[in-house]
Automatic annotation (TrEMBL):
It comes from the Bacteria. This is Manganese catalase. InterPro entries: Ferritin-like, Ferritin-like_SF, Mn_catalase, Mn_catalase_C, Mn_catalase_dom. Belongs to the manganese catalase family. Pfam families: Mn_catalase (PF05067). It comes from Cohnella kolymensis.
Length: 288
């Protein structure tokens, strides 16, 4: 059960209208790393967590997911206020008088006026609708928390870039709060991962017996590019991060399977007949 408290978690008061900044903030709201994504992701991970209903990890997920809903509200409010008194109706007239100004105004999302009535949209900065495929909820906390850490990292990068794109002190203040919460969330997922790795191991899922792997390939790095710069990395030599192997570096990896060849498809599939493909090969010059 959820309660909505009418006061925002943090203030969202821009200094002036700015429809282009509102468009950029759509990425913070509903992009791949946006507030809508992490809110649904953390809540689903928590609701899908099986076992003890009083698990500290379930509580961690639902606490954070609920906070992210508050961030959805903050960014939505900020977008709507940036659209207040925005001169979208006069774009055509202004553009006709000054092509440069027209080019700038052309960056405003027309959907903010036509579809949402000067409100936030469930879409990213390019107008692509928010997509549930952004959400990761595998049921394995080690895999999920690593994705959570990546989402918070990407979100903080984007928020920092939008912060640098404006001089509006009100917007910067709101973003500074959201960036600070991203700092906390990155740290909390890292702390939770550290706990899980101690109990489950480093590689997810820790429940899969490693004896079933082809162990001779478990800690081998294959160099598939020109040069050997990758050989300078921590992943090329020394003990593996899970403590169960030693990294090896292969300079010129060789093919280990046979040449790919498929039998002809049945006639009802209507592929190109094998005789035609073979005739084409026979007609090619020898050096091709």
């Amino acid at each position: 059960m959820f309660y909505h408290i009418k006061e925002l978690q943090y203030q969202a008061r821009p200094e002036r209208p700015d429809p282009l900044l509102a468009k950029r903030l759509q990425e913070i709201l509903a992009g791949k790393f946006g507030e809508m994504t992490v809110a649904i992701q953390y809540l689903l991970q928590g609701w899908n967590l099986r076992g003890d209903a009083n698990s500290k990890y379930k509580d961690l997920l639902l606490d954070t997911g609920t906070e992210e809903l508050a961030h959805v509200e903050i960014v939505s409010t900020l977008i709507a206020r940036l659209l207040d008194n925005a001169p979208w109706q006069d774009q055509d007239a202004i553009a006709a008088q000054n092509p440069m100004v027209g080019a700038i105004l052309a960056g405003m999302s027309p959907m903010h006026a036509i579809y949402s009535g000067l409100g936030a949209l469930p879409s990213d900065a390019e107008g692509y609708p928010w997509n549930g495929r952004y959400v990761t909820a595998t049921g394995n906390l080690l895999a999920d928390f690593r994705d959570n850490l990546a989402k918070e990292s990407g979100g903080r990068v984007e928020a920092a870039r939008v912060y640098e794109s404006t001089t509006d002190r009100g917007v910067r203040d709101t973003l500074a709060f959201l960036i600070a919460r991203d700092t906390m969330h990155q740290n909390q997922w890292a702390a939770a991962l550290s706990e899980l790795e101690e109990n489950e191991g480093f590689v997810a899922p820790g429940t899969f017996p490693q004896e079933r792997e082809r162990r001779e390939f478990s800690y081998v790095f294959f160099n598939f590019s020109r040069g050997e710069q990758s050989a300078q990395g921590r992943w090329a030599r020394g003990p593996s991060c899970d403590g169960k192997g030693v990294f090896q570096y292969v300079t010129n990896p060789q093919a280990m399977g046979e040449q790919q060849s498929l039998p002809p498809a049945p006639p009802y599939i209507h592929d190109t007949p094998p005789s035609v493909v073979q005739d084409y090969k026979m007609s090619m010059p020898p050096n091709i």
